[in-house]
Amino acid sequence: MNDLYNSFQKFFEIVIADTTELLEKVYGIRYQVLCVEKRLPGFDADQCPDMLETDDYDHHSSHALLKYRPTGAYIGTVRLILEDSSEPDKLLPVELYGHSDPELCDIKSLPRKQTAEISRFVVVSQFDRRKGEERRKGERRKALSSASINKIVSHERRGTDRRSALNIALVLMAGVVRMSKKYGIRNWLSVMDPALNRLLSYDGLEFNPIGPPVNYHGMRRPYFVKVEEVLTRMYTQHHDAWEVVTDCGKYDPFISSDEKVLN
Known about the structure:
By secondary structure, the chain is of the alpha+beta class. 30% of the residues lie in helices and 23% in strands. Strands 1, 2, 3, 4, 7, 8, 9 and 10 form an 8-stranded mixed sheet that branches. A two-stranded antiparallel sheet has the order 5-6. A hairpin with a 6-residue loop joins strand 5 and strand 6. Helix 4 (168-183) crosses helix 7 (239-246) and helix 6 (227-237) packs across helix 7. It starts with a helix and ends with a helix.
């Protein structure tokens, strides 16, 4: 186990929101980030009188919470939109708003039960301040929901000259991997800010663009990737980050038990 994984275990815990109480935590965080802090356009607090941000995808989604161990507070959440068993032909947000190119990814041909969309990727404001992150000249990173992720724990990665850190984007993706293993998800879709995809790419988590930027809660772009492609790339090229998102292989369905033992 590496320093990145040890930092993850020290500071964070992934909690699957599978009770009414935990789901209220999920929707409350989303209300705070999206409706009160207004980190993305298109969300209105007046539409959420109960101070819970929800939509009609939540009832067929799996939700994860991110707990900050030093305080016990829930600081972020992410959901995985699954197939709606009561309406199998229901379109995902990426299909409705993403303007994806069938030549790059024919979403309709993907097996629905094995395909899910990553959505509502948010963290509360006090954890949304990155320190010391290198930025490309003239590039402005936006709110966490679209890409601005705070780096919490600094460390030096061996074998590289780039100083890196455990970032909340990576930690939230650990929640996505856990949910994907549970539901047998093999394909990920998303509509995200390209800056978030670049940030994810630092740890081998980059998605493939499948269409042009669109104005959907700000300028975002549709993406697709096979889960096996991501986890295999991380295992071979970013093993420390792979240990974080898979809990040292526990949630990687594509790696053999012998390989887990060897590592």
